């Protein structure tokens, strides 16, 4: 497993301070898009947007879509 791309996003307002990390990961048989999220300085929850490896262009499309959606919700790059 090799992390090809990573982004760190954050969201902060009067009542919350959250982080979101997305990873594009190279596996032997394709690519995965994984993420972690939660309140800053707490144990993060882990998830994946790809249940099994996909082609690189599809993984990049998913990765970029996540970033666009999070930024639309007020997240910014750290």
Number of helices: 1
Which stretches are poorly predicted, pLDDT < 50 over at least 5 residues?
none
What is the overall silhouette? elongated
SSE ordering: EEEEHE
Number of DSSP strand runs = 5
Report the biggest beta sheet as strand number plus sense, adding barrel if it closes. Answer: 5 strands, antiparallel
Distance between the termini: 24 Å
Proportion of residues in extended strands? over 45%
Mean pLDDT over the full residue set: 96
Structure classification: alpha+beta
Helical amount among residues, as a percent range? 10-25%
Q: Strand order, biggest sheet?
A: 4-3-2-1-5
Radius of gyration: 13 Å
What does this structure look like?
15% of the residues are buried. It is built from one helix and five strands. It is an alpha+beta fold.
Strand-helix topology:
Elements: E1 2-12, E2 17-27, E3 30-39, E4 45-48, H1 56-72, E5 76-77
Antiparallel strand pairs: 1-2, 1-5, 2-3, 3-4
For this entry, give a set of tags.
5 strands; 22% helix; 1 helix; alpha+beta; 78 residues
Give a quick rundown of the structure.
With 78 residues, this protein is α+β, with helices and mostly antiparallel strands.
